[in-house]
Automatic annotation (TrEMBL):
Residues 78-98 are annotated as: Disordered. The lineage of its organism: Eukaryota, Fungi, Fungi incertae sedis, Mucoromycota, Glomeromycotina. Residues 84-98 have a biased composition (Low complexity). GO terms for cellular component: cell surface; extracellular region. The keyword Cell wall biogenesis/degradation applies. It is an enzyme of class 3 (hydrolase). It comes from the Eukaryota. One of its GO terms (molecular function) is glucan exo-1,3-beta-glucosidase activity. Keywords: Cell wall biogenesis/degradation, Glycoprotein, Glycosidase, Hydrolase, Membrane, Transmembrane, Transmembrane helix. Belongs to the glycosyl hydrolase 5 (cellulase A) family. This is glucan 1,3-beta-glucosidase. GO terms for biological process: cell wall organization; glucan catabolic process.
């Protein structure tokens, strides 16, 4: 900038109003003011004249000092207490952290992500270094032995928290606003900020992480959107706020011995409502610029988590999730390889590097064997959803459960085959569901599969489920857990839903009411597939 100009940060309110991010105050004005002095106008003339000038200059200086003081008081960056007081006075949820942060970039135009704001959460990480969530987990300050027998991942997704979806939080959405961007745009910046931060603050809290540990889980998958890292002009997402909540969640996970899978769940230029991430066309990622931008975001995450207080806690990192079916495997493989190299380059010590989870993209496990074997710290992730298989949807009720259990046993064979090929494989999303009564894609009902045996009103009335129904769902959950643990483990989708409105997807509700197993107790159906194959 100009030599005679001083950059003064703009206030939070002005940032939210999309005004300029800098305020230029000419330094020469400050210099001229400071140069003013009662003696500057003295001369050797009449003493009365000198006194008159003294009084005049003193008066001028007083006025200038008061004016400048008021100006800088009004224009200084808003402090944390100011932000809190402002939010409380307006009835909004207090954020207790600087928002939005001052976003900076390194020389390679990689975003430099801010640390957890100490006024938002204070925690002594060293206090919890020896915590572990279950008997089969090493302490949180040690590396997790992924792929080794006896150490399966047993985790849940926290979808619907920092990335919102209609199935999980339906009250946020409408046909006119079916995704986060359209919701934020329809509300406007200030109302969107208030609404989303209130949700981040209330939907998940410390008690959730404590419960996960008590239920015997050892991992949690936390989804974020690219807007936690960077938002450009014209993008209507609520920028950056979810980042601080991610860091707070990671610290809660550490406290209760849980390891975290940070999943970049939504990437730029995702135009599909039903695709959580990735808008692929026949030539790979939709646009070189957007793929390069995603790689920068992945690099930003890797750079940030290469810190002592995150090593072994953020032990899994996902660069992209659930890619569109219209892609070229070679292009996606190249994107995966570059993502992996970006992450690896941030770590001098490979034992500190998180394992990189690469989505199978419904291309078949063996498609990725060559790539996975060439990457030392990579895991193949698969979404295991049988409810969208037309063979199942057209089956009569007497065959339905048999088909689903048979499919689950086939999954066990597939996961075991991958393990034999030295390819670590996990089910990143699955649930003990037998139909789409919960409307996973509720905004667009055109893709729902018909189900002649479904009676959705009674099917979702979980308070009136009889023991037979609960036992059936429990068996389905146990058989799938057994199948995925023949590989490297699983993440149930999802931890909870708004007002328990999708009960079969609601892990917390299922454990509390008996149709999802308590992992600290012996499971009863673990030998089902083995005995079935023996017969």
């Amino acid at each position: 900038s100009n030599e005679d100009e001083e950059i003064i940060p703009i206030s939070t309110d002005e940032l939210l109003d999309n005004k300029t991010t800098e305020r230029v105050i000419p330094t020469r004005i400050i210099k001229e003011i400071s140069a003013l002095s009662p003696t500057a106008t003295e001369n050797s003339g009449n003493a009365l004249r000198r006194n008159w000038w003294k009084l005049l200059m003193a008066f001028i200086i007083t006025i200038v000092v008061i004016t400048v003081g008021i100006y800088f008081l009004a224009k200084r960056p808003r402090s944390k207490s100011d932000e809190s007081n402002n939010n409380n006075s307006s009835g909004n949820e207090t954020t207790n952290f600087n928002y939005p942060p001052n976003v900076t970039y390194d020389s390679f135009y990689i975003p430099i992500l801010p640390q957890l704001d100490s006024s938002f959460m204070k925690i002594d990480n060293s206090t919890f270094d020896n915590t572990k969530s279950s008997l089969n987990s090493p302490p949180i300050n040690q590396e997790y032995p992924y792929g080794q027998a006896g150490y399966p991942i047993r985790g849940v997704n926290l979808d619907g928290w920092l990335v919102l979806e209609p199935l999980i939080v339906p009250s946020f959405f409408s046909p006119d606003a079916p995704d986060e961007a359209s919701v934020a745009k329809s509300l406007g910046p200030d109302a969107a900020k208030t609404k989303f931060i209130k949700h981040y603050n209330e939907f998940v809290n410390e008690e959730d992480f404590k419960k996960m540990s008590e239920f015997g889980l050892n991992h949690v998958r936390i989804q974020i959107g690219f807007w936690a890292i960077e938002v450009l002009e014209g993008e209507s997402y609520v920028p950056y706020a979810s980042w601080q909540f991610l860091l707070r969640g990671i610290n809660w996970a550490r406290k209760y011995g849980l390891r975290v899978f940070v999943d970049l769940h939504k990437v730029p230029d995702d135009k599909g409502i039903l695709r959580k991430v990735g808008n692929f066309n026949d030539n790979g990622l939709n646009g070189l610029n957007e793929s390069q931008r995603t790689l920068r975001h992945i690099k930003a995450l890797a750079n940030f988590f290469n810190r002592d207080n995150y090593t072994h806690v953020t032990s899994l990192l996902g660069p992209i999730d659930e890619t569109n079916s219209k892609f070229v495997v070679g292009n996606l493989s190249e994107f995966y390889n570059r993502s992996y190299q970006n992450i690896t380059a941030s770590y001098n010590d490979s034992s500190r590097q998180p394992y990189v989870v690469l989505d199978e993209a419904q291309a078949g496990f063996s498609t990725w064997w060559t790539l996975l074997k060439s990457l030392n710290r990579a895991i193949l992730g698969s979404h295991s959803w049988f409810i969208y298989n037309k063979e199942f949807s057209s089956a009569n009720s007497s065959d339905y459960e048999k088909l689903i259990l048979s499919w689950s046993c086939e999954q066990k064979t597939n996961f075991f085959s991958n393990a034999n090929e030295n390819v670590k494989t996990i089910a990143t999303e699955w649930a003990a569901v037998v139909n789409d009564c919960d409307h996973m894609h509720a905004i667009d009902s055109s893709i729902l599969l018909p189900c002649s045996t479904c009676k959705c009103d009674s099917d979702n009335d979980w308070r009136n489920w009889n023991q037979t129904k609960k036992d059936s769902l429990l068996k389905l959950a146990e058989v799938q857990m057994d199948a995925y643990e023949s590989g490297s483990g699983w993440f149930y989708w999802t931890w909870k839903t708004e007002n328990n409105h999708a009960p079969k997807f609601d892990y917390k509700l299922g454990v509390e009411n008996g149709w999802i197993p308590d992992l600290k107790k012996n499971r009863t159906s673990t030998s089902f597939c083995d005995s079935r194959n023996a017969n």
